[in-house]
Design goal:
Blueprint (H helix, E strand, L loop, with lengths): L1 H14 L9 H14 L15 H14 L9 H11 L2 H13 L13
């Protein structure tokens, strides 16, 4: 369901070619995702528009931004998601990305120090 919502948003943004100020957070996320995906491992070419992983990367990032609109898209998520997609299918990559980003950071304790 999240992927379908992301595809609809991506399609809507693709049809609108104007670079005017975007006040809708979802469209702003799509714009940022599209910019960042093109910067993701450019030497590999597999995440570029003609590459085999381009649509998968857009879909997973768009799905996450739809799933967590309070977080949306943050620059750099594409690199983490790209590594996940190289190792698993898009649904699993989405689940793992969501779990990774939702885990609270634990404070270091004295039990963790090496002596």
């Amino acid at each position: 369901m999240m992927v379908d919502r992301a595809k609809d948003t991506l399609r809507c943004c693709k049809e609108s070619k104007s670079d005017q100020y975007v006040n809708d957070k979802a469209l702003e996320n799509v714009r940022d995702i599209r910019l960042d995906v093109l910067r993701t491992f450019p030497n590999l070419c597999i995440f570029q528009e003609t590459g085999p992983y381009y649509d998968q990367l857009l879909n997973v990032l768009g799905a996450y931004a739809s799933y967590r609109p309070d977080v949306g898209y943050v620059q750099g998520m594409s690199f983490l998601t790209a590594v996940l997609l190289l190792n698993m299918d898009p649904p699993d990559a989405f689940i793992l990305l969501s779990n990774l980003l939702h885990q609270p950071v634990r404070e270091p304790s004295s039990e963790w120090t090496l002596t």
